[in-house]
Write a structure and sequence with these properties.
The complex is a heterodimer of chains A (102) and B (411). Chain A has 102 residues and is mainly α. Helix content of chain A is 45%, strand content 8%. Chain A is built from five helices and two strands; from the N terminus they run E-E-H-H-H-H-H. Chain A has helices spanning 26-35, 42-56, 63-67, 74-80, 85-93; strands at 2-5, 8-11. In chain A, strands 1-2 form a two-stranded antiparallel ribbon. The longest helix of chain A has 15 residues, at 42-56. The mean pLDDT of chain A is 90. Chain B folds into three domains: 2-51 and 58-108 and 253-318, FAD/NAD(P)-binding domain, CATH 3.50.50.60; 111-251, FAD/NAD(P)-binding domain; 331-390, no CATH class. The longest helix of chain B is centred in the C-terminal third of the chain and has 19 residues, at 300-318. Chain B has seven helices and 24 strands. In chain B, helix 1 (11-23) runs parallel beside helix 6 (300-318). Classes of the chains: A mainly alpha (102), B alpha/beta (411). Chain A binds chain B through residues 60, 62-65, 68, 74-75, 77-78, 82-85, 87, 99-102, and chain B through 156-158, 162, 192-194, 198, 220, 222, 224, 236-237, 266-267, 293, 295-298.
Chain lengths: 102, 411
């Protein structure tokens, strides 16, 4: 499905994940965060940047991995992205839903 | 003489020993299999022990019984692998050199990864059926349990046999109905996932069954700790679920051997090429079963399919040929739904489980993603197949390593 986010036409999966990372930018991240009642702070951005880099390097993401990243611990990850943090953070970061769950 | 060493004589290692014994020229290749344990467990049977449907002795046999003649069995634990030296170090300090190494060291539960899980209530009101001793302890608990809040819980993914906790919840529903005390038991299924399963069509079916059986579901629950004093589990987001009886699937990790060897990821699973099953780092190391990090279920059916493809690949590797045979992530799982019925799902990396017929397209006799009695008999018959055909690497009629899309209802 397509949706207008911060003035641009964006392709999303049924679950609201971006289909094409090339369409992502920081305004879109802000808009997606707002839909999840989150205002992005520099702390959020550190985590989002880490997640995007891991994705680019083909590293499968999990909550445990993020907890051991040295960027945030799991407790803070939950404070930053309170509901289903891995799903929410990857959605805002513009990358596909993690397949850590088989 | 060249040497092929297999670490682990569980399902994957044992099948590989049997297949390679048939395929390799024994004048050129010697095969050694290493495992410190004395017993081989039929792990799918652990699910039935708490409900007294299987006796403990149904699921255990001597490990050596399934190692073929002509294969050296070293009944000593492994300390670590020195991949750079092509060498395995045993717990007694002896070493084994290899030309090819197969890692089949599986996965195990790690309850110590969760704060409080092995606290005061462990073995009193906190149980797991994910190992032999745990399944027996839970059986003894259920015998006299008077009812209350039963919480069936998954700590984190991935876990061995990801449908087993759901099956446990379904079988518990039947068990308490049969005992005439279902009204005294409130069942809650707590999962870190966003639904009953990871694949959409299966989740739909399973959600329907959960509802029908009056099992509550709590999703997106990432456990932080078990609160022994107040008998509840707490999640990082501040949610809590109270229990009178907690049946948990603890974190699953790869073997300590993998950690000692520096060959694993953060959960000790070995980074493995998902199509060839070769180690991503060392070309003379191959990995199968629960020990890998490949993105499919950790299940006996998967290791069985992998073994067939890995055998072809090892033969190609020995001849110096390119590894062309490709593993597609094929998994085939029965899901017990209680009341003498079961579902069957068949899927791979690319195709989620859907309805249809199996293993013969259009005929069956098994029905995919639909409850039936026949599927339940299939699951029970599988114990015999496991001990008598699968471990010995005898072909199972009609069931192919690569998933077939025939007979399946994709839209």
């Amino acid at each position: 499905m397509d949706k207008i986010i911060s003035g641009k036409n964006i392709s999303l999966t049924d679950e609201g994940f971006l289909k094409d990372f090339a369409q992502w930018d920081k305004d879109i991240a802000d808009a997606l965060a707002a839909e999840n009642q989150i205002v992005l702070t520099p702390r959020h951005w550190e985590v989002l940047t880490y997640i995007q880099n891991e994705f680019k390097n083909d590293v499968p993401l999990s909550i445990r991995k993020i907890g051991k990243s040295g960027i945030v611990d799991i407790k803070e990850f939950y404070q930053l992205f309170p509901v289903a943090p891995l799903k929410t953070a990857t959605k805002i970061a513009g990358i596909p839903k993690p397949v850590s769950c088989i | 003489m060249k040497r092929l060493v297999i670490l682990g004589a569980g399902t994957g290692g044992t099948i590989m020993a049997n297949q390679l014994k048939k395929e390799l020229d024994d004048k050129k290749w010697g095969i050694t299999i290493v495992d410190g344990r004395k017993q081989h467990y039929y792990q799918p049977g652990f699910l039935f022990i708490p409900f007294d449907q299987y006796k403990p002795e149904d699921v255990v046999k001597p490990i050596q019984q399934f190692i073929p003649e002509g294969v050296d069995f070293v009944n000593i634990s492994v300390d670590k692998i020195n991949a750079a030296q092509h060498q395995v170090v045993l717990a007694n300090g002896n070493t084994l050199l290899y030309d090819i190494l197969i890692i089949a060291t599986g996965s195990e539960i790690a309850p110590d990864e969760t704060e409080g899980m092995q606290g005061e209530e462990w073995g009193k009101s906190v149980f797991t059926f994910y190992d032999f001793e745990g399944a027996i302890a839970l059986r003894d608990k259920l015998k006299n349990w008077q009812g209350g809040k039963l919480v069936v819980h998954i700590t984190e993914m991935p876990i061995k046999c990801p449908v087993a906790p759901l099956e446990f919840a379904f079988l518990a529903d039947s068990f308490f109905k049969d005992k005439g005390m279902r009204d005294k038991v409130e069942i809650t299924y707590v999962t870190p996932l966003s639904g009953a399963f990871t694949k959409p069509k299966t989740t739909e079916t399973l959600n329907y069954l959960l509802k029908e059986k009056n099992i509550h579901i709590e999703t997106d629950f990432a456990i932080e700790s078990v609160d022994n004093d107040n008998k509840q589990i707490l999640d990082y987001g501040g949610k809590s679920v109270p229990f009178d009886l907690l049946v948990t699937v603890p974190t699953n990790k790869g073997s300590q051997v993998i950690e000692n060897s520096g060959l694993g990821d953060e959960l000790n699973f070995v980074p493995t090429d998902k199509a060839t099953l070769q180690s991503k780092v060392h070309p003379d190391i191959f990995v199968l079963g629960d020990a890998t990090n490949v993105p499919t279920s950790k299940a006996g059916s998967v290791v069985h399919f992998e073994a067939e493809i890995l055998t072809e690949n090892i033969l190609a590797y020995i001849k110096g040929q390119k590894l062309e045979e490709e593993f597609d992530g094929h998994a085939n799982c029965f899901i017990e739904t209680g009341g003498g019925k079961a579902l069957l799902i068949d899927f791979n990396y690319d195709h989620e489980p859907v309805t249809g017929t199996f293993p013969i397209a259009g005929i069956g006799p098994l029905r995919l993603l639909k409850e039936s009695r026949f599927n339940h008999y299939g699951k029970l018959a599988f114990k015999w197949v496991y001990w008598n055909m699968l471990l010995k690497a005898r072909p199972i009629p009609f069931v192919k390593a690569r998933m077939s899309i025939a007979g399946k209802d994709y839209n």
